Amino acid sequence: MQPREYDIMYDLETTYWWHCGMRSIMDELIGDTISPDSKLLDVGCGTGARLKALGRHCDSWGVDFHPRAVELCRSRGLKNVELGDARNLPFRDESFSHVVCCDVLTTLDDDLAAMKEAYRVLSPGGIFYSTEQAYPRLRTQHDVSQWAVRRYSKHHFISLLKTAGFQLDRVTFANTIMFPALALYRLVSKTLKPPSKVDPEHAHSDLYELPLPINSALRRVLELESRIIAKRNLPFGLTLIAVASKPEKESRPEKT
Predict the structure, then answer these.
(1) What residues pair up with 44 in beta bridges, in sequence order?
(2) Each residue of 44-85: pLDDT tens digit?
(3) Contacts 24+ apart (CB under 8 A), 224-230
(4) What's the confidence (pLDDT) of residue 74?
(5) Residue 255 above 70 pLDDT?
(6) Domain 3-136+147-175+212-245, CATH number (from 3.40.50.150, 3.10.20.90, 3.75.10.20, 1.10.3720.10)
(7) CA 192, CA 21: separation in Å to the nearest integer?
(8) Domain definitions of the chain by residue range
(9) What is the model's pLDDT at position 252?
(10) Please, which pLDDT band fits residue 146 given cuts at 50, 70 and 90?
(11) Predicted confidence (pLDDT) per residue in 5-32, tens digit
């Protein structure tokens, strides 16, 4: 993403409704699988709020490709953060019991290479958790500001996971309850300012501070959604979420 977006994220990541709500969903889906003996890697850890939350439960590590992200992680007191590329992770094979990768694959030309790297560093039986933005038609200036080159269809997302060798446990949408309003907002934004005509250097994200009552209300909606997702998959939404695993008896990833 644009370097300035890291500073905006750092200021808002611990309180903004979307970040807080997505952490609640993550906790519902994989929280029970994490123990003090777990070793977890957050690929594309950003400014570190998610990594810090995960670090309360286990040995956690982060990697991000941008020096500003690593710098801001260290400002949060995080030490196990390295500069690195998701497509060439600086870790040994089978080093982690969990790998988390949130809104990273959308930014990479070679998303399959990053998925295979996550598979490589994950131990057999390990858990892979990924969130990515859904519906290519909803690409807007926000995506440009995040350096996102795509949004995913469910079919494409599942195909990517399987090609990398993962065994699928759950694939669900999120940001479902507010999807009609959010989708309409994005379609209007896309019409007024087509992303193809936006200069990446001047693109701005949808992330900005909201009045406390509105932020709190939106956060409660996502927290409600997290409790629904704990019991069932949702059929549509702004975000795709996968919980997958590396087979105990490793199978060779499909050739492409």
Answers:
(1) none
(2) 999 999 999 999 989 999 999 999 999 999 999 999 999 999
(3) 224/177, 225/21, 225/25, 225/174, 225/175, 225/176, 225/177, 226/21, 226/24, 226/25, 226/27, 226/28, 227/28, 229/25, 229/28, 229/29, 229/172, 229/174, 230/28, 230/29
(4) 96
(5) no
(6) 3.40.50.150
(7) 29
(8) 3-136+147-175+212-245
(9) 54
(10) confident
(11) 899 999 999 999 999 999 999 999 999 9
Residue 116: CB atoms within 10 A of its CB come to: 18
Q: Give residue 101's Cα distance to chain centre.
A: 5
